[in-house]
Design a protein that fits this description.
The protein is of the alpha/beta class and 310 residues long. Helix content is 33%, strand content 12%. Bound molecules: 2-oxo-2H-pyran-4,6-dicarboxylic acid. It catalyses: 2-oxo-2H-pyran-4,6-dicarboxylate + H2O = (1E)-4-oxobut-1-ene-1,2,4-tricarboxylate + H(+).
Length: 310
């Protein structure tokens, strides 16, 4: 595979490029599996990074993403707008349009987006908007603006993806529970795994899902959440052990409301870049039966993103 580049942009200091030459997963994905959380970055020369971005990545093009899809054995992708592109969805939409129907997307929009722009994104395959509350990634957007957007996209049958850190859930609870759509939480709401699966913090997240049947969770990003590793590198088949109980708990209690994604190209990782083949090998540790794997990787993402095919 070619090495990652960045066009004319200078990458954030210490930036880790995505892993080239991922291994062949040992875990055989079920037919029709969906990588339900991944991104494209640029290429910066074609789709410039947003002026308001908090990081400048290496490029990660649609061609590279779809090569990875085929290598790992996924059938489809859900491409989530990355914060380095702000509310300029052109790179993500371009990826959808050139996917041959194999990708759907999640956009970031502002209140100023027109109905015609929303409809054009729908026609390209966008099925959700992302609201981001992680302070290192985005500036604050007023909640009344987000609620107005949620009401508008609800009419298109879209859902809302939310990204936040576990400590912020209490403060965001009332807003989240008023959203009129299906609500999909990125990366299990980023639990602090060092606090343990029985912590009050994770109990609150489980309560959030239990009390609100419209809330789904991505059980993704062990490489981001793990404190102890070991990393998914060098053939490691037992990676990120400390994340397993968290993801397994969510998969087993809410088997019909979970999604999984690679999170390729893994923005902002600081200490290592995982081998995506070994990340796929993480899946059977958290979805331990063929029935759970089928729901996580095929039935759930298809119901949410390709309902017309179900
Ligand atoms: O934790 C992160 O840094 C991160 C960033 C982004 C993004 O910049 O969109 O997306 C993710 O899913 C995770």
């Amino acid at each position: 595979m070619p090495q990652p580049t960045s066009g004319d942009f200078t990458k954030t200091a210490g930036w880790l490029d995505w892993y080239s030459g991922p291994s062949q997963p040992r875990f055989q994905l079920p037919a029709g599996a969906v990588d339900a959380h991944c991104h494209v970055f640029g290429p910066g020369a074609e789709f410039p990074y947003a002026p308001e971005r908090k990081y400048t990545p290496c490029d990660a093009s649609k061609h590279q993403l779809y090569a990875l899809r085929d290598h790992l054995g996924f059938a489809r992708n859900v491409v989530v707008q990355a914060t380095c592109h702000g509310a300029d969805n052109r790179a993500m939409v371009d990826a959808l349009v050139h996917s041959g129907g194999k990708a759907r997307g999640v956009a970031t929009v502002k209140r100023s987006v027109s109905d015609a722009e929303l409809q054009a994104m729908h026609d390209a395959g966008v099925r959700g908007v992302r609201f981001n509350f992680v302070k290192r990634l985005v500036d604050f957007t007023p909640k009344d603006e987000l609620m107005e957007i949620a009401a508008r996209i609800h009419r298109l049958g879209w859902h809302v993806v939310i990204y936040f850190e576990a400590v912020d859930l209490p403060e965001l609870w009332d807003f989240f529970t008023q959203l009129p759509t299906t609500v999909v939480v990125d990366h299990m709401g980023r639990p602090d795994v060092a606090k343990g699966v029985d912590s009050a913090e994770f109990a609150l997240f489980l309560q959030f899902m239990r009390q609100h049947p419209n809330v789904w969770s991505k059980v993704s990003c062990p490489e981001r959440l793990s404190a102890t590793g070991p990393h998914a590198l060098n053939g490691e088949q037992a990676a990120y052990r400390d994340v397993v109980p968290f993801a397994r708990k969510v998969v087993e209690e809410f088997p019909d409301r979970v999604l999984w994604g690679t999170d390729w190209p893994h923005p902002n990782l600081k200490d290592h870049m995982p081998d995506d083949g070994l990340l796929v090998d993480f899946i059977p540790h958290i979805a331990t039966t063929p029935a759970l794997q089928q729901k996580l990787l095929v039935d759930n993402p298809m119901r949410l993103y390709w309902p017309e095919a179900c």
